[in-house]
Amino acid sequence: MKPQTAPRAITLLTDFGSGSSYVAQMKGVILAALPSATIVDFSHEIEPQNILEAAIYWMEAVPVYGAATVHVAVVDPGVGTSRRILLLELEQGGLLLAPDNGIAAPLIELHRARSLFSVENVALFRASISSTFHGRDIFAPVAAYLAAGGEPSSVGPVVETYEPLELRSPTVEILDQRCTITGEVLVVDRFGNLMTNITRDLLSQFGAAPQLALSSAEVILGATSIGAIGRTYGDVEQGEVLALFDSQGRLEIAVRGGSAARRFGAATGARVRVVLDPPRA
């Protein structure tokens, strides 16, 4: 093991539910191996088996943590099958431990990876391994080993490939100087806000053009006009609908003090369009 002054922190992201004994069992294994471990609960409320939601959560949360962190994600519909478990070592030093089902793919693609390993060293696992609970029997003890300063290369062989995550990109159509960007709802958060795959950066590419005005953009959910893009929730009265950019730069549809998902009966995959018209003379 590498000498270090303090163990790495361990973060946990699962779909087990906060009241589940599964989370407690994982923590028990970690603390038995590393009593001084600092364990941070990212979330245990990922929708069951929703790999996309877990991947987006990791994309948002992992970059704000420092190098001395082991990030663990257990949203694992393929547990017990031939699917691999991956350990990703980021250039900045953070470690990501996840099933090879696409959860880690966006971070691998957005942040330079120093190395990628297949977790196969059974000496690091619990003595008895359940075919349905690798979170406790593999992820937890390996995370404790890494947090204590264990060498990432000890977990298994270097690999070059990983399972991609299918993320559809918005489409852009320009006709008679009118630009229409069509995307979809990626995630519905616990407030009922609709988080889309349309970003501020994408809109700015067109809104900054001389013939198009971002300030005149109209957001449309399905066949319902939401209106222009606001700045913050306080731009509208309680119960009113608005579109705005969230803290990650994604277009969001919300109801102040309410739920856009309930108001519109919208869910993941719902179509969202942004129409940019040329400025009026």
Blueprint of the fold:
Blueprint: E1 9-14, H1 21-33, E2 39-43, H2 51-61, E3 69-74, E4 85-90, E5 95-99, H3 105-110, E6 113-118, H4 134-147, E7 171-175, E8 178-188, E9 194-199, H5 200-207, E10 218-221, E11 224-227, E12 241-245, E13 250-255, H6 260-264, E14 271-276
Parallel strand pairs: 1-2, 1-3, 3-5
Antiparallel strand pairs: 4-5, 4-6, 7-8, 8-9, 8-14, 9-13, 10-11, 10-14, 12-13
Helix pairs in contact: 1-4
Largest sheet: 8 strands, antiparallel
- Give the CATH class of the largest domain: Alpha Beta
Total domain modules: 2
Helix content: 10-25%
- Looking at CATH, the homologous superfamily of the largest domain is S-adenosyl-l-methionine hydroxide adenosyltransferase, N-terminal
Q: What are the segments in which pLDDT stays under 50 over at least 5 consecutive residues?
A: none
Write down the CATH topology of the largest domain. Answer: Rossmann fold
**Cα radius of gyration in angstroms:** 22 Å
Fraction in beta strands? 25-35%
Count of separate DSSP helical elements: 6
End-to-end Cα distance: 68 Å
Question: What coarse outline follows from CA principal-axis ratios?
Answer: elongated
Please state the structural category.
alpha+beta
What are the secondary-structure elements, in order, as H or E? EHEHEEEHEHEEEHEEEEHE
CATH-derived architecture of the largest domain: 3-Layer(aba) Sandwich
Please give the number of β-strands: 14
